[in-house]
Amino acid sequence: MSAMELQVLRYFQEVADGATVTGTASRAHLTQSALSRALGRLEHDLGAALFQRVGRSLRLTTAGRVFKEYADTILEQYDRAGRAVAETVDPEAGVIPLAFLHTLGTWLVPPLLSGFREQYPRTRFQLRQHGEEALRRELLDGTADLVITSGDPGDPLIRWQRLLVEPLRLAVPPQHRLARRRRVRLAEAAGETFILLRQGYGLRARTEDLCGQVGFTPGIGFEGEEVDTLRGLVTAGLGVSLLPLPQTATDPPSTTEPPTPHLEVTDVESSRDIGLAWLAGRALPPASERFREHVLSHPARAMS
Fold first, then answer.
1. Residues β-bridged to residue 264
2. At what angle do helices 3-16 and 62-89 cross, to 10 degrees?
3. Cα separation of 289 and 28, whole Å?
């Protein structure tokens, strides 16, 4: 397959993933008509329409969905082969696609990356942040070699190893009836309005499980997509939430006193596991394998 054919596959993949022809053409420094002709030639060669127009958007046809599965595999294998060749030529270099939970980007991930680059300064990282379900898809789709996430994904195709246990505290508004307390039984929050992440996030499921363990179902007032948003809504007095302490690479949790009270929970094991995951049946490229070994051998570095 020529470089031009591969590039057309990338154009197809981008549009199939929801990008507009105009935006894709602009990023590729092509005219819109040139990109449309390239996609048209691809459809002609395959003998089938890959897209259908719905309003102003393009949607995949049945043939297009089938073709995309193969196109994604071809591009993933080609990119992986290119990385393997580059790392063979220069073993100290390489690119590591890494994905992780949003909350881990302020404190856990930076020291792991900096510690690794002290040994391998020419290594580059491709970083992405998601919730747990999207992280699992990153692994299964091959767009990430490694993910740092909460809880075992429970997928037979994925291996996961715990790195540490992160406490969860009951965050309450500054003027809340419990705000002057340092500790609380989670059962005391029954009847409170809870601010939770959307379905599909591990912290949402963990909160519901912990509340269930002490005998109640949390009443949901708001749903968000980031822990910092939840914390802000709690501070504004809109409800309570089970959250990890705010942390940064320079201010570990032991020295952090957030303005919003975060109370230690005493009647249930209020915590979540943080671990590293990778595909079980796939040999990692050299750089990613070195980073995997680094993370697993230095879990305490993340808490230092």
1. 183
2. 130
3. 33
Backbone phi, psi, residue 200, to 5°: 100, -10
Q: What is the domain count for the chain?
A: 3
Question: Distance between CA 212 and CA 214 in Å, rounded?
Answer: 5
Report the alpha-carbon distance of residue 124 to residue 94 in Å, rounded.
6
Pair (299, 157) in one structural domain: yes
- Contact of 225 with 198, CB cutoff 8 Å: yes
User: What is the model's pTM?
Assistant: 0.70
Q: How far are the Cα atoms of 20, 56, 146, 151, 174 from residue 202, in angstroms, in the given order?
A: 32, 36, 18, 7, 26
Query: Residue for token digits 């329409």?
Result: 49
Question: Which residues have a Cβ under 8 Å from the Cβ of 181 and sit 6 or more positions away?
Answer: 261, 263
Angle between helices 286-297 and 62-89 (to 10 degrees): 80
Could you tell me if 160 and 278 lie in one domain?
yes
pLDDT digits (tens, 9 = 90+) for 98-150: 999 988 988 999 999 999 999 999 899 999 998 898 899 899 888 899 999 99
